[in-house]
Amino acid sequence: MKLWGGRFTKETNPLTDDFNSSIHFDNILYPYDIKGSIAHAKMLGKQKIISSEESVAIIEGLKEILKDIQCGKVEFDISAEDIHMNMEKLLIEKIGDTGKKLHTGRSRNDQVALDMRMYVKDQIESIDAMLHNLQQVLLDLAVEHKKTIMPGYTHLQKAQPVTLAHHLSAYFEMFKRDRARLADCYLRTDIMPLGSSALAGTTYDLDREMVADLLDFKAVTLNSMDGVSDRDYCIEFLSALSMIIMHLSRFSEEIILWCSDEFNFIKLDDAYSTGSSIMPQKKNPDIAELVRGKTGRVYGHLMGLLTTMKGIPLAYNKDMQEDKEAVFDGVKTISMCLPIFTDMVKTMNVNKKVMYEGAKKAFTNATDAADWLVKKDMPFREAHSIIGKLVLYCIEKGKNIEDLSLEEFKKISPVFDETIYDHITIEACVNNRKVIGGPSIESMEKVLFINRNYLLEN
Ligand code: ARG
Question: Transmembrane residues, as ranges (predicted)?
């Protein structure tokens, strides 16, 4: 007989049990469900809604069930639908009729809302720690590669020289914002919904603040209808995860390009590469490709849940059970991607010489040549045009700008003198960019100092 079977005259169809049940995925909520139930039972006891003996018996029973599950002794029952009713059933089996009192003043609707909020809070902390690790690796690499000059691109065309430290630190900033988004989502997740009951609160004199304190929530929800039907925090969380994997995916794309024969900027460690079943020479960046590929599924979960929620009238509706697989798989995906991605980046080999040579090609010092003219009091637009002509001349002659003789320079503009050469070396192009946020060693050192402190504090 179902826990809710009183008003029914027939058994449910097995297909209904199958279709309706969520135990095969929401079983991972068991630690939260037990913790939440223990807090609820403590509060019921303190408020004398149940006797203190009953409260203690329930709490002890729940603790034993926790141990049983951890030892693999429990097999969940599909006809008990979800983790919440499975737990209640197990409790009644373990301690008898007293177990039937646990659900006093509570509904599965506020129970599941509580469990999910506890779960999301924990996952935010765990994913944040993974992002911290990745940032630490990026910071260490940036310190090592302050002088590793490489081409910076726009439109995937060589644009101006930067350093590898500068390039990697761009991702450091993205992950800072990702962590801030998670922290912000945490604030709105950290609100305790138990006491909302089915939708309209309860007639029992519950101490909701006590439950919030016991479960480490900073506040309680202020509207019981919203308390049971809000899934904004799940959507926000998936949105934060989508942004994280979007950043990982851009980074993956660059890694895939960089280890191609055409770029040859890096070599991935063998431990983070794979081979081909037919082509013996192949070494493929599968990890980066998979991270890029998994982006689609995280976005999919975000769009899926947004769509699930869009037409649901207040308050709880079963549609909301669809939040779980979306959030759980989003968490699983990100939690798999982050550590392996971090190790892959940490162990990659940087081909400094190729990066340097690459930066010297394709006139990446053209802007600096124009800037030199501007410093000689020429309007920038005019300088731009002169250097454009100079580049055209270089393309015809197959030379770099810095390889031209002074006569060749002067033929294009009489303003040029020999001091131009010092300003257009690749090192000068990087290190004259002293603006904060720029790639020069000087400005990178300032930012690396800020980022080092950031990691100590965050
Ligand atoms: N398994 C359900 C879910 O995940 C729990 C809440 C069910 N409540 C109900 N009244 N059917 O949403």
Answer: none
Tally of domains within the chain: 3
- For the chain (length 458 residues), average pLDDT per consecutive 10? 89 92 97 98 98 98 98 95 98 98 98 98 98 98 98 97 98 98 98 98 98 98 98 98 98 98 97 91 95 98 98 97 98 98 98 97 95 96 96 96 96 96 97 97 98 98
For the Cβ of 321 lying below 6 angstroms from any atom of ligand 1, the answer is: yes
CA distance 298 to 56: 42
413 is known as an active-site residue: no
Asked if 284 and 296 count as a contact pair (C-beta separation under 8 A), the reply is no
Q: Same domain for 316 and 397?
A: no
Q: For residue 231, give the DSSP letter.
A: -
110/196 Cα distance (integer angstroms): 6
Active site residue 276: yes
How many whole angstroms separate alpha carbon 331 and alpha carbon 304?
15
Judge whether 176 and 200 are in contact, CB under 8 Å: no
User: Residue 340: which domain range?
Assistant: 110-148+171-357
At residue 235, the pLDDT reads 98
- 155, 260, 384, 385: the active-site residue: 155
E strand or H helix that includes residue 300: helix 286-309
- Asked if this assembly's ipTM is beyond 0.95, the reply is yes
Q: Which of 2, 12, 86, 108 to mutate to test the pocket of ligand 1 (most atoms within 8 A of CB)?
A: 108
- Helix, strand, coil percentages (3-state) for the chain, rounded to 5, are 65, 5, 30
Q: Which of 27, 33, 109, 314 to mutate to test the pocket of ligand 1 (most atoms within 8 A of CB)?
A: 109
